[in-house]
Design a protein that fits this description.
The protein is an all-alpha fold. It has two domains: about 60 residues, Orthogonal Bundle (Arc Repressor Mutant, subunit A); about 150 residues, Orthogonal Bundle (Tetracycline Repressor, domain 2), CATH 1.10.357. Helices cover about 80% and strands about 0% of the residues. The chain contains eleven helices and no strands. This is TetR family transcriptional regulator.
Length: about 230
C-alpha cells in the first residue's frame, strides 16, 4: 500500500514543482523588464537582475541560462499581450466602432499598467530589432494582414470610410504606446512627477474620437452615397 500512495502523490508533487517554477520564472521576468527598460539590453547584466530579484546569479541562470533568453522572455510576454489584443480586431461580424474603441482602451490600459514592458519593446524596435526582429516578423505580420483584411471587408460593405487600414493601425500603435514610452516627457510638460489616471483617460478619449472621425462615413459622403 505505501508504494501506491507514493506513486499517486508523485503527479501532484511534479505539478506543484512546475507551477512553482512557472511562477518564479514570471517573477524574474517582472524584475528584469524594469532593468532592461532603464538600462537597455547592453547595459543590463544578469548579476544586476539576480540581485534585484533576490537570487544568486547561479540560481537565476538555472531558469534563464543567458541574458538573451531572459530578454526574449520579457519580449515574448509583451508580444503575447499585444497579439491577443490585435486578434480582437479580426472579427468582421462585430461593429467596427465598438471593436476599435475596445482595442484603443486596451492599448492605453497596457501603457498605463505596463509602461516598462512597452519601453523595452520600443527600445528593441528603435535599435533595429536586432535580437527580436524575426519573432516580430513571424508573429505580428500574419495577424496584421488578417486585421487589414477585416478592415477592407468593412470598407467594401460600407460600414466604415475607405481608410488606409495599415497606417490607421500604425497610428493607433503610436498614439497609445506614447503614453508609456514618452510618459516622462508628458508629465514634465504637464508639470507633474508622473501622469495621472485622468491623463490616461483624457488621452484615451481623444484617441478614440480621432479614430472614430477617421472611419466615419459622414466624412466621406461620396463613398457613402455609392454604397447605399
Amino acid at each position: 500500500m505505501p508504494p501506491k500512495i507514493g506513486l499517486a502523490a508523485a503527479p501532484t508533487r511534479i505539478k506543484r514543482r512546475v507551477i512553482n517554477r512557472d511562477r518564479l520564472e514570471a517573477d524574474i521576468a517582472e524584475v528584469a523588464v524594469r532593468i532592461f527598460a532603464e538600462c537597455g539590453y547592453e547595459g543590463t547584466s544578469i548579476a544586476a537582475i539576480a540581485e534585484a530579484a533576490g537570487l544568486s546569479k547561479q540560481n537565476l541562470m538555472y531558469y534563464y541560462p543567458t541574458k538573451q533568453a531572459l530578454y526574449e522572455r520579457v519580449l515574448d510576454d509583451v508580444l503575447d499581450d499585444w497579439l491577443a489584443r490585435m486578434d480582437s480586431l479580426a472579427h468582421e461580424e462585430q461593429d467596427p466602432h465598438n471593436v476599435l474603441r475596445a482595442y484603443i482602451q486596451a492599448k492605453v490600459r497596457f501603457s498605463r499598467e505596463h509602461p516598462w514592458a512597452s519601453r523595452v519593446y520600443a527600445m528593441e524596435v528603435i535599435g533595429g530589432a536586432k535580437l527580436y526582429g524575426e519573432q516580430i516578423h513571424d508573429r505580428v505580420v500574419p495577424l496584421l494582414r488578417k486585421d487589414i483584411d477585416v478592415f477592407e471587408k468593412w470598407i467594401a460593405a460600407g460600414r466604415i470610410a475607405p481608410v488606409n487600414a495599415t497606417h490607421l493601425i500604425f497610428m493607433i500603435w503610436a498614439m497609445t504606446q506614447s503614453y508609456a514610452d514618452f510618459s516622462a516627457q508628458m508629465a514634465l510638460v504637464l508639470g507633474r512627477k508622473q501622469l495621472t489616471r485622468k491623463d490616461y483617460d483624457d488621452g484615451e478619449e481623444t484617441i478614440v474620437r480621432m479614430v472614430m472621425a477617421a472611419i466615419s462615413l459622414q466624412a466621406w459622403p461620396h463613398h457613402h452615397a455609392q454604397t447605399e
